[in-house]
Design a protein that fits this description.
The protein is built from 19 helices and 10 strands. The chain is α/β, with parallel strands linked by helices and about 500 residues long. The strands form 2 sheets. It has an 8-stranded mixed beta sheet, sandwiched between helices. A two-stranded antiparallel sheet has the order 8-9. α1 runs parallel beside α6 (about 130-135), α11 (about 265-280) packs across α12 (about 285-295) and α14 packs across α17.
C-alpha cells in the first residue's frame, strides 16, 4: 500500500472536514481517533471512495506515512495535545513534523515548539478558522512554529485553504507562514478577539434598531442585507441577515425566542489578558468579552430591570437617517477594533521576536475565516503601501473613512446613552479614538497622584524623556522613591 501524504488524529467535525478537503485536493490521508468506531464509520461513510485510510493505533498511523512524516492533531486544546505529542515523539524520526491545528494557547505552542525541536523533530501550531463549512471547502490557515517545517506542509495547507481573487484575475490562498513558535496561534487568538468585537458591534446595532426604532426581525433583516452589499460586506453581517430571516415552526422569528445569555470559550479572554500584559489598549475586545459576561447575569438583570431607574427607549425620529448613522458607527468602530488588534500583534512581535507580515495576515483573514470581509482588503492595501505602517489610523484611506463616519458615529453613541441602550463596543471604540488623537491627556495629574501617595516618580515636559523626578508633596515625606514599572 502506498504511504499517505499526511496523518490526522481527531475525527470530530473539524478533523473530518479537513480530511475530506485534503482528499478532494489530491492528497492521501491516514486517520486515527481514540474511539475506533468513529474511524470505521468515517471511512465507510463520507470518506468512502476517497484516498483516506483508517488506522486503529498511533503506531499504525506513523507506519502509514511517507517521510518526513506529517501528523496533524485536531484534538481538544490543553493536556490532550501534550499527551499525543509524547506518544508521537516515541515513534517519529528526526525531521518529522507534528502539527497542532486546534485552538491552543500561544504560550503552550511556544513551549511545545521548543520541546519538540529538542527531540530533533519539527513542530507547527496553526490557527484554523472558518468553522465546519470552512474546514470542508476552504478555511483560513495561520501556521507558525519551526520555520523549516513550512516547505513540507505548504503544498497541502495552501491547496485546501480558501482563495481570494487578485485584481489580475489570479488567486491567493488564505494561508501563509506567520512566524516562529507561537506566532500562528497568537494571530489566530487575535483573530478570535476581533471576532468578539465584530459580533458585539452587530448586536449593539440590532439592539438599537429593535428597542429604539421598534423594528421587527424581518425589517432588520432588510437593513443587514443592504449593508452586506456595501462597505460592511462581511460574513458576520451576511449570517446576521440569514438569522433574522429564519422562522420557527410557528412562522415567527426564531431569534426572538433565544435566551439573551451569551457564552464563550476563552479566546477573547486570552486576547484581553495578552493586551493587558503588553500594555496595549485593546478596549473593543475587552468590552465585547465583558458584554458577554454581563449578559450571562440574566437572573440578576431581570430583578434589576424592575427596580433600577433610567431612561426608557423612545423613537429616535427619522429611522432611515439613524440607520445610516448606525452603518457609519459600525464601520468606524470596526476600524478601531482592527487598529487595536494590529497594535497588539506588533507589540507581541517585539516581545517574542516574530517577523510578522501584517499585510499577509489581512490576506489570510480575507477569506475562509469568521471575520472575512471586504474591509480586510483595505488593510492589506495599507500595508502594501507602507509595510512599516505604525498604526492603521495613519493610513490615508482609514483616516478619510473616519472623517466621513465620525459625525454619525458620535450621534449614535450620544443617542444610545440618552436612551439608556448599552453600546460598550461602539462607545469604547470612540473613547479610544478620542484618546489616541488627544495631544494632552490628564495622565499628568494621575502621575502626580501616584507620586504623592506612593513616591512612584514622574517625568517632566521640560526635561528629557526617561529622566524621573519625585516631589515631597506634603513636606513630611522623604527622598526614597518607588521603582518604576516600564513595559519595554
Amino acid at each position: 500500500m502506498d504511504k499517505a501524504d499526511i496523518g490526522l488524529i481527531g475525527l470530530a467535525v473539524m478533523g473530518q472536514n479537513l480530511v475530506l478537503n485534503m482528499a478532494d485536493h489530491g492528497f492521501s490521508v491516514a486517520v486515527f481517533n481514540r474511539t475506533l468506531t468513529t474511524v470505521d464509520e468515517f471511512v465507510a461513510g463520507s470518506a468512502k471512495g476517497k484516498n483516506i485510510t483508517g488506522v486503529h493505533s498511533i503506531e499504525e498511523l506513523v507506519s502509514a506515512l511517507k517521510p518526513p512524516r506529517r501528523v496533524m492533531l485536531m484534538v481538544k486544546a490543553g493536556q490532550p495535545v501534550d499527551d499525543f505529542i509524547e506518544k508521537l515523539i516515541a515513534l517519529l524520526e528526526p525531521g518529522d513534523i507534528i502539527i497542532d491545528g486546534g485552538n491552543s494557547n500561544y504560550a503552550d505552542t511556544i513551549r511545545r515548539t521548543a520541546y519538540v525541536e529538542s527531540k530533533k523533530l519539527r513542530y507547527i501550531g496553526t490557527g484554523v478558522s472558518g468553522g465546519e463549512e470552512g474546514a470542508r471547502h476552504g478555511p483560513s490557515i495561520m501556521p507558525g512554529g519551526s520555520p523549516d517545517a513550512w516547505s513540507y506542509v505548504r503544498p497541502i495547507f495552501q491547496a485546501i485553504a480558501a482563495k481570494v481573487k487578485r485584481p489580475d484575475g489570479g488567486e491567493d490562498p488564505c494561508c501563509d507562514w506567520v512566524g516562529e513558535n507561537g506566532a500562528g496561534h497568537y494571530v489566530k487568538m487575535v483573530h478570535n478577539g476581533i471576532e468578539y468585537g465584530d459580533m458585539q458591534l452587530i448586536c449593539e446595532a440590532y439592539h438599537l434598531m429593535r428597542d429604539t426604532l421598534d423594528m421587527t426581525a424581518p425589517e432588520m433583516q432588510k437593513v443587514f442585507a443592504g449593508w452586506n452589499k456595501g462597505k460592511l460586506d462581511s460574513y458576520l453581517i451576511e449570517i446576521t441577515s440569514d438569522i433574522l430571516a429564519y422562522q420557527d415552526v410557528d412562522h415567527t422569528p426564531l431569534v426572538d425566542k433565544i435566551l439573551d445569555a451569551a457564552e464563550q470559550k476563552g479566546t477573547g479572554k486570552w486576547t484581553g489578558i495578552s493586551a493587558l500584559e503588553m500594555g496595549i489598549p485593546l478596549t473593543m475586545v475587552v468590552e465585547a468579552v465583558l458584554a458577554r459576561s454581563l449578559s450571562a447575569l440574566k437572573d440578576e438583570r431581570l430583578v434589576a430591570s424592575q427596580v433600577l431607574p433610567g431612561p426608557r427607549p423612545k423613537s429616535l425620529g427619522d429611522p432611515q437617517a439613524f440607520i445610516q448613522d448606525l452603518q457609519e458607527a459600525i464601520y468606524a468602530s470596526k476600524i478601531m477594533s482592527y487598529t487595536q488588534g494590529y497594535m497588539l500583534m506588533r507589540a507581541a512581535a517585539r516581545e517574542y521576536g516574530w517577523n510578522l507580515n501584517y499585510g499577509g495576515i489581512a490576506l489570510m483573514w480575507r477569506g475562509g475565516c469568521i471575520i472575512r470581509s471586504a474591509f480586510l482588503g483595505k488593510i492589506k492595501e495599507a500595508f502594501d503601501h507602507d509595510p512599516v505602517l505604525s498604526n492603521l489610523l495613519l493610513d490615508v484611506y482609514f483616516k478619510q473613512q473616519i472623517e466621513t463616519s465620525q459625525p454619525g458615529w458620535r450621534r449614535v453613541v450620544a443617542r444610545a446613552i440618552q436612551k439608556g441602550i448599552p453600546v460598550p463596543a461602539m462607545s469604547s471604540a470612540l473613547s479610544f479614538y478620542d484618546g489616541y488623537r488627544c495631544e494632552s491627556l490628564p495622565a499628568n495629574l494621575l502621575q502626580a497622584q501616584r507620586d504623592y501617595f506612593g513616591a512612584h516618580t514622574y517625568q517632566r515636559l521640560d526635561k528629557p524623556r526617561g529622566e524621573y523626578f519625585h516631589t515631597n508633596w506634603t513636606g513630611h515625606g522623604g527622598d526614597v522613591t518607588s521603582t518604576v514599572w516600564k513595559k519595554e
